[in-house]
Structure formats: structure tokens, C-alpha cells
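Here is one chain, start to finish.
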Amino acid sequence: MTRRSRRSVLALAAVGLAGCLGGSGPGRSGPYDEGEGGAEAAPDGMTASPDEAALEASSVPTADEQLPVEYSLEALREATVREVVPRDGIPSIDDPAFEPVDESVDRLPDDPVFGVVRNGEAKAYPQSVLVHHEIVNDEIGGEPVAVTYCPLTGTAMGFERGDVEFGVSGHLLNSNLVMYDRDGESYWPQMLATAMEGPLEAASLVEFPVRWTTWERWTEAYPDSVVLASDQDYIRDYGNDPYGAYNPPSGYYAEDTDWTFAPLTADDRYPPKRPFLCSRSDDGPLAISLEALREEGVYGIGGDGRDDYLATYDPTFDVGHLYRVEDATEYGYDADAGAVIDPNGERRDPADLPLESVYAYDAMWFAWAGFYPSTSVHTHD
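Its structure:
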């Protein structure tokens, strides 16, 4: 069912999504309002299970366990804004070209890039290129992967893909990119990583972390890596972001500007586009203030009889990491060294603690709260 409010259509025109199809336009900057909301979360979350025969027949790698989803499949389908652009109207990059980082020119130190390291191979994907394509079907460290980015929710995420390519469906859910696989054509909202319709509905993808960092930080850490080139055989103006600019944040990306499409559930406790480190932990969804994490270095989450979690700040890339721990209060932070102090007093790399790592990714507040209205929030505010 097509659902597109008049307000959304007007916002769509203003944000210049047409720019993703080859044109350009200014980003939208307007007052924050609460919006309409769009769906009701299911009390027990999604209860559907994937079809085992479909899983067996599919070439799409899927996770052993279903990821948490707080809405029914029917509610997700009802809330989907369909055909915002035609399918593949925003073309994925399926034969990506790379160049050594020391041969890449015309990049500013603070330009955002999305970095991935797998099996010893490091690659960077500039936000300025991904904003025009949203999906790169690539191979890193000998493994086929999809590196994905949704400009409207500020989420960069990686997925294993086997020999299947992913494309941009042209649909949006909670403003988030809805991918489709070019195998059985199931539809996958990026942030949920769980199919909402198609033969693999209710199945979840295999995720891996993508570091959202800057060009300067990445090239200092990985001077011998490669970067996705700006010459990709597509007619695109990679120097012009149709949503505004991330360096510095302006237009659509300014954290106190309004969303484009009403979220599944509206929550006005924080500016709509403030970035949080978010996780669908086994003890419930978590949103951790990146600003607070930068100030404290480590951030412990616990209580209520559940396991503790420890968020750590990694100054090398200006990113956060999340771990499960027995007692988060036993950890400290050495800001001068940029190191976590463990219970034995040893300084350790925030990105490589000998603890159980918990998958987390950065997301704009309105998008995370829309998908996971039960989220707990951890911040100084």
C-alpha cells in the first residue's frame, strides 16, 4: 500500500532527492516539529519466523538468529513509503573502482569516509560518493560484501552478501533505505537488517561494523589502503551533496532540523538528527550519546539485574565501541593515551578489548527511536 502524506511529498521536493538521480538542490533546513508518527509497536515485537525452505533455497547469507524488531511485518509494510524513486533509480555500484589513498586528491581532512577492515584488507568509501549510490557491492578480504549508507538516517552498515547483489528498492521505511536482494527479491530495511517482505521475510542479514570517520583519521591509520574512486562510470557530481553538506554539517544533516518523512514513532527528547551509538543488545535496545562518550572515554551501562555493557571511545577514528562486561564500574579511561584502563590497571586499545564485542552503529536519534521506541538512552542530558 502506498503511503505518502502531503507533508512528506513537500519535504521530498525540498530536500532535493532528485539530486540522487543526477540533479542537485539545496538541503532542507527547517524547524523541528514532533511529526505525525506512523505505526504502533507490537507489545511482543515481531513474532513472525522465516520460512526454512526459502532460507535453504536462497543464496543470501542470513544470521542464525533473528534480530530484534519491535513492529509486526504488517505494520512495517503499511508504513513503507513506496516508489519514492524508481527501483535502481539510485544505482548501486556493482563494479567498484578504487585508488590508493595517497593518489586521491581533492579531499578535505574532515571529509567523512566509511572505513572497513576485513581479513587484513582495508578500504575507505567516501560519503560524497555513497550519498549518490547508497550501496556498493564489493569484495573485501576475499569476501563478497555490501557496504551501505542511508543519507536520511545517517547510517553506514555492512552486510555479507554471498554471490548476491543488493540494490536500492526506491522505498523508504522510517526514512531508512530499503534494499532488495537480486536473488529472490526480498526487501530489507537497512537499520533493521531483517526482511519485511519477500521469500526471506523475517530473516536477518549477517552484519559487520563500518567505521564512520574522517579522511584524515583514516589515511593516518591506513596509509596503504585504497579508497573508492570518484570515477565510477556514472554521471554524478560527487562534489555536490543533494542533502546539504556533512563537512561542516548543514542542510538536511544539521542535528536540529526536521526529518523528511514522519518516523514510525516520534520521540522529541533529543534533536532529531543528533547521532547516537545504537545497539540491539540482548537486554534491549540501547542509544548512547556520542558526545557523552567523547567526554568520558568509557560509559558503563548496567543495573536492573541485567548484564553490564561498556561503551568505549576510540580517538583514532572518533568512533565508539560496545562490549559486554561483568562489571562496567571496574573500567576507566586514560584520555592522554586514548586508552581504556582495565580492572588490572593495564592500558588497552578501545577498539580491541579482550571482551565480548556487541554490534553497534551510529544513527540519527529520530530514526533509532522510530525503529526501537523501547530504547534506553544513556547521555549527560
